[in-house]
Amino acid sequence: MRVVRSTQTKTMVNRIPITQARVNLGALVKRVHLNGEYFILEKDGIPIAGIMDADELEDYLELRDPKVKKQIAASRKDAEASRVRNAAEFLAELKGSGKGKKTISRKRA
Asked: What pLDDT does residue 7 have?
């Protein structure tokens, strides 16, 4: 197994023959999920597939959606134009708006 490290994000990319991956699939999946590693599966030295964490794959697929790309672009423009709110202040405001509300309690029989 060859290990390639990305210098920008310190990502572990492992290249492994598909036959070796088949034998060690459980351990590979555990490393992918827990350690954030990636595996490129090779057949006769040629990369044919990759293994990555399911959450990251879903994020990747979502980012390919044109609607999501438009939302990200609009959000970026709002940030550049200072049309954004501080998250901590917004959350404090939301918590504060709940103070005046009455809670209904139910009596137990």
From this structure: 45
Length of the chain: 109
Cβ atoms 18, 48 nearer than 8 A = yes
**CA distances in angstroms from 28 to 16, 17, 41, 85, listed in the order given:** 10, 12, 11, 42
We find that the CATH architecture of domain 2-52 is: 3-Layer(aba) Sandwich (3.40)
Q: What whole-number distance in Å separates Cα of residue 75 and Cα of residue 77? A: 5
Task: Write the CB contacts of 3 (distance below 8 Å, at least 6 apart in sequence).
Answer: 12, 13, 14, 15
| Alpha-carbon gap, residue 41 to 16, rounded angstroms | 5
pLDDT band at 21 (very low <50, low <70, confident <90, very high): very high
